[in-house]
User: Fold these one by one.
Assistant:
Number 1:
Amino acid sequence: MKKGPQGPFLFSSLVEMIGPMAYACDGNATNPLPVAFFDTEPATLIADRGDSVSPIFIQPGASGARYQGRNQSFWEHHGEARISWGYGAPEMSGKVVP
């Protein structure tokens, strides 16, 4: 999904949303990953990285919230996120930027 002129969260008012919030990946707060969580079935988050925006869907898990997209994953547990973006990309760690 490509970004529109209004950014990735243009249609956020159609369903209840938490966010957007930004995650600093690997401690780099200058290039955060914006994420918004949506109250859908299944639960969804939308993340914005580079020139693309991706819907990522919640997956069953034992602990934390784990989301999986086509080539992206996002797993949040106790305030720490593990993020991968792109096929074969290395996993990054992230925390919400205050």
Number 2:
Amino acid sequence: MQVASLQEEKNHLENHSEAITDKVADDLDDPNTTSGKKYLALQQQLEQYKDEVYRLDAAKEDYRLKYEFSSKELVELKDKSESLATLADEAKSLKDEVDVLRQNEEKVKKYETTIESYKRKLEDMTDLRRTVKMLEEKNTSYMEKSVEWEEESKKTSTLRSQIEVYKRQVQELQSKVTVETKRGDKSDFEIKRLQEKLSAVQTEKDRLAQDLQNMKENHEEMELVRLQGMSLDGNAGNLYL
């Protein structure tokens, strides 16, 4: 009996619940009821929320695209900045090379002046050697004459005094020749030393001239690269505009 009573109570509650549910549904569908008005207001608010969500999604997508574009542009700007920094370093390097070129040009000019000075000294040494050779020839001639005079003096006593004079002259000439010979030997050594120094200077001059030419060519190549880089940067700037 109790079970039947409970079952009956359950059925009654279920029927009552269905009736209430139907009534609530009818009230919600009826815009004239309080529940219907609230339900309609909630639906309108829900639609507004949906529209707002759609708008936010669209804005989010727009911001995402802008972020991607800005990120890409930032990378390009960083690359451009690094390129400009590289060009700046190259420009500084070019300036240093130009300074070295100027210094080397001054060295070359100094070496040319030194070479000309050595050439003049060599010419002076050549003249000195000719003078020594001439004195040696004169000494030989006087010696031969002295021998002849000595032979003649055996035959003619009156010539003895003159022979003595000639002997003194010969001795003086021999002393002079000795001095000049020593000077000539010293001149030969000096000439050899100057020739070696001239050769070294000429070699250094040729090396500097070659370095100068190489650095000029490098400078022209770097300048061309720098101008091309500036041209590319200018074209890139026009594309952004």
Number 3:
Amino acid sequence: VGLLSETTQNLSTLVNQVLNQRSGRDQNSTDRSVELDEELLRTRDTMNTLQHELDKKIEELKQQTEIVVDLTSKLTIREAELASVTEERDQARADLMDTYLAQDEVVQKAREARDKAMSRKNMVEIQLAKTRVEMMQTSSQLMEAIQQKVGLSQQLEEWQ
């Protein structure tokens, strides 16, 4: 782009020099005048062609700059999305670890509840056994009391 601008300026300078020389000279030679006119036309054509190419290059550069800006924006968005997804993944992993810990805690609590229930069951069975023994003792005492009463009733009848 810089080279094209420089070349365009050089051509413009040459054209001006040619025009100045032409106007400052005496126009004795028509051949020289025709040659200068042809050179001037070629120079202007070259200058127009170079200006056109310069304009095309500038337009292409603008388009490529827009593409770069667009891609940079998309990249920034993707980086933010990636960071967000990475954070979500890390949180999910932490939650999963907490879930495993929670399952372990649930299992531990279930074991503790089972152990307490077994302990209560054993205590109730022991209490039941004691109560049965007491009941049997009470039954035995009741039977003895009944037998004593029967015996006393018999003795009373004998004395009467």
